[in-house]
C-alpha cells in the first residue's frame, strides 16, 4: 500500500493546499533546523511547530496504567471546579487566529476529548485556518453521526487506544464494553471516511504495553490489520520510581519554588514485564506484512533503546538524552493556561485567553525552564517520557 505520508501529500496537493505550508514548516523545524533552537543565549525560542491542547480533564474510562485517572492518577484529586474550567469554542478560535500566522501542528489531548460536545467544531475551526490537527482518544464516543462531523471538520490524524483482544483490553481499559465500543468507533470513522471520499483522518491504533498484554501484542496488531487502519504503534510505559520522583521534586522546588503534584501519576508498577517476550513480539511484528505502517514509542530510530533497560533501568536515558520540547512544543491546559510541558502541569506561565501566545511562549518562566534543562540536564523522572523521544535526533 502507498505510505500514509504519500497519500497525505497527494490529498493536500489536490484538495487542501492551505495545509501544505504547515506540513512543510513542521518538517523544517523538527528535522532540519531543530539543532539551532538551543543556541540562543537568552533562552528564547522561535514560535513552536507543535502545540498540544489538553481540551479537558474528564474521562469515561479508568485504565490501569493511566497517569491521569489510573491507580495513582494525578487527576483523581482535582477539585470539581478545576475539572469544569474549560475555554469556550470562541476563546479557542481566538487562539487559532494567532496560530494561523505560522500554522503549527495541533495535538488535541484530554482526558477524553470527545466528551466535549463541540470537539468536531473545535477541529473544524483549526482546520479552516490551515492548521494540521490530531486527536488522542479512546474512540468509545464515536457514533456514526459524530464520525461524519469529525471527517467534515477536516481532522488529519487520530490516535485510537486499544490494548489487546476483547478480554485483555477490557481488563486494562476499565469501562462498560470498552473494547466493543472502541472497535465500533474505529469502524464508524472508517465508514465516514468512505462516505466523505477522503483518506482523512489517518487512523492509528496505539497499544500501550503492560504486564497484562505483553503476550498479546501481535494479536492486537492482527485486529488492527483486520480493521484496516493506517498505523499500529506500541507505546512503552511512561513511569517513574519513588527515588526519581523525590529527586525531581527537590530539584523543581529548588529551581522554581514549587513541588510538582502531577508526577505521582507516573509511579506505576512495571516489574512483571518480560523483556524477552517483548523482543519476540516486536520481532514478529516487524517481520510480517501488514495493511498498516508499524511504529513504536520510543521511536524505532532512537539509538540504544532496549526493553530490558526501559523497564529495569529507569534512570537510563536513550538517544541524545536532550529534550527539545520546551523549544518546539507549547502545552495548553483546558482553561487556557500554558505550562512548560506535560510532565509539569503545576508550573503555569500565563493564560492564552488573557495574553498573546508569543508573549507567554518566551516569558521569563519558560526561558528559566529551558535554561535549567541546558544547565542541569533532564529531570530524573523525564527518562521514560514518550515526548522526550518523539523529537530525538540520535
UniProtKB/TrEMBL annotation:
This is Pyrroloquinoline quinone biosynthesis protein PqqE. Residues 45-297 form the Radical SAM core domain. GO terms for molecular function: 4 iron, 4 sulfur cluster binding; catalytic activity; metal ion binding. Pfam families: Radical_SAM, SPASM. It comes from the Bacteria. InterPro entries: 4Fe4S-binding_SPASM_dom (IPR023885), AdoMet-like_SPASM_containing (IPR034391), Aldolase_TIM (IPR013785), PqqE-like (IPR017200), Radical_SAM_PqqE_MftC-like (IPR050377), rSAM (IPR007197), rSAM_sf (IPR058240). Its cofactor is [4Fe-4S] cluster. Keywords: 4Fe-4S, Iron, Iron-sulfur, Metal-binding, S-adenosyl-L-methionine. The keyword Nucleotidyltransferase does not apply.
Amino acid at each position: 500500500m502507498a505510505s500514509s505520508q504519500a497519500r497525505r501529500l497527494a490529498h493536500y496537493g489536490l484538495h487542501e493546499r492551505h495545509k501544505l505550508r504547515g506540513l512543510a514548516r513542521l518538517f523544517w523545524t523538527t528535522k532540519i533546523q531543530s539543532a539551532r533552537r538551543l543556541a540562543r543565549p537568552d533562552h528564547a525560542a522561535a514560535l513552536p511547530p507543535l502545540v498540544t491542547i489538553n481540551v479537558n480533564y474528564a474521562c469515561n474510562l479508568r485504565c490501569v496504567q493511566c497517569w491521569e485517572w489510573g491507580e495513582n492518577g494525578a487527576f483523581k484529586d482535582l477539585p470539581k471546579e478545576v475539572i469544569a474550567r474549560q475555554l469556550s469554542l470562541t476563546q479557542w478560535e481566538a487562539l487559532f487566529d494567532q496560530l494561523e500566522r505560522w500554522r503549527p501542528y495541533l495535538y488535541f489531548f484530554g482526558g477524553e476529548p470527545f466528551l466535549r460536545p463541540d470537539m468536531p467544531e473545535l477541529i473544524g475551526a483549526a482546520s479552516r485556518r490551515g492548521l494540521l490537527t490530531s486527536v488522542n482518544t479512546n474512540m468509545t464516543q464515536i457514533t456514526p453521526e459524530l464520525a461524519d462531523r469529525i471527517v467534515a471538520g477536516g481532522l488529519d490524524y487520530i490516535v485510537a487506544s486499544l490494548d489487546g483482544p476483547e478480554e485483555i483490553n477490557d481488563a486494562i481499559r476499565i469501562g462498560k464494553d470498552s473494547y466493543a465500543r472502541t472497535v465500533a468507533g474505529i469502524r464508524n470513522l472508517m465508514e465516514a471516511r468512505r462516505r466523505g471520499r477522503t483518506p482523512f483522518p489517518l487512523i492509528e491504533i496505539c497499544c500501550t504495553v503492560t504486564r497484562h498484554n505483553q503476550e498479546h501484542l501481535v494479536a492486537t496488531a492482527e485486529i488492527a490489520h483486520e480493521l484496516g487502519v493506517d498505523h499500529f504503534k506500541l507505546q512503552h510505559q511512561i513511569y517513574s520510581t519513588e527515588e526519581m520522583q523525590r529527586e525531581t521534586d527537590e530539584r523543581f522546588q529548588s529551581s522554581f519554588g514549587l513541588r510538582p503534584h502531577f508526577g505521582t501519576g507516573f509511579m506505576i508498577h512495571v516489574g512483571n514485564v518480560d523483556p524477552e517476550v517483548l523482543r519476540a513480539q516486536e520481532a514478529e511484528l516487524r517481520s510480517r506484512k501488514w495493511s498498516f505502517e508499524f511504529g513504536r514509542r520510543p521511536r524505532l530510530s532512537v539509538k540504544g533503546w532496549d526493553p530490558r533497560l526501559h523497564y529495569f533501568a529507569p534512570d537510563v536515558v536513550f538517544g541524545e538524552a536532550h529534550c527539545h520540547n520546551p523549544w518546539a512544543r507549547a502545552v495548553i491546559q483546558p482553561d487556557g493556561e500554558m505550562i512548560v510541558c506535560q510532565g509539569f502541569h503545576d508550573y503555569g506561565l500565563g493564560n492564552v485567553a488573557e495574553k498573546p501566545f508569543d508573549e507567554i511562549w518566551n516569558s521569563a518562566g519558560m526561558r528559566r525552564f529551558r535554561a535549567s534543562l541546558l544547565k542541569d540536564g533532564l529531570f530524573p523522572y523525564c527518562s521514560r517520557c514518550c515526548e522526550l523521544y518523539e523529537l530525538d535526533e540520535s
